[in-house]
Amino acid sequence: MAGLCLLAAASVPRAQQAVSPGIFVGTWVGVQQWLIDPLPPGAEEPQPVTLTIELVDGRLVGTLTPFFGGADGAGFVDAQIVGDHLRASGGMGTPRRTADGATFTRNLREGWKQSVKILFDLKADKTELTGTADVLMGEVKWMRLGYELSRKRSRY
User: How many CB atoms lie within 10 A of CB 101?
Assistant: First the structure.
């Protein structure tokens, strides 16, 4: 009977603990791939990208370049860690600090980019970062991108 109790206790799932924000901090390099079919005209598959994530005033802030084939890139501020995933909402352009430190602003001329929202879902281990970005136009899901990144290594 005691063995049965131990077996039952071992099969009960434990609550997943959130990982430290530090596991996501750094410069990550790799590829961005379209996860839609058919591919948009002129889409480069896969596209090399760099994602830089910093911890600023206790908040995770990220910048991804290039994004959507353009030099404007994309970014996020104030990401949340859920279990072992970083989840963040961002937009096209570079995150800029504002007086309150929490607003994502964009320095873009094209008005349509202002309505683009990007939902990042990233998972990191010590050297690899994988995940997706759902791109919404207003509230409508427009496209999905996938990421396979590795920590950028410094030269010896």
Answer: 13
Average pLDDT in the chain:
80
Instruction: Please state, as a whole number, how many other Cβ atoms lie within 10 Å of the Cβ of residue 25.
Output: 16
Distance CA 89, CA 32 (A): 18
Question: Can you give the residue range of the structural domain that contains 143?
Answer: 14-151
Specify the CATH number for the domain of residue 126. Answer: 2.40.128.20
Alpha carbon distance 34, 88 (integer Å): 19
Domains held by the chain: number: 1
- Residue 3 inside a domain? The answer is no
Residues 84-127: tens digit of each pLDDT: 999 999 988 877 656 555 444 444 445 667 788 999 999 998 89
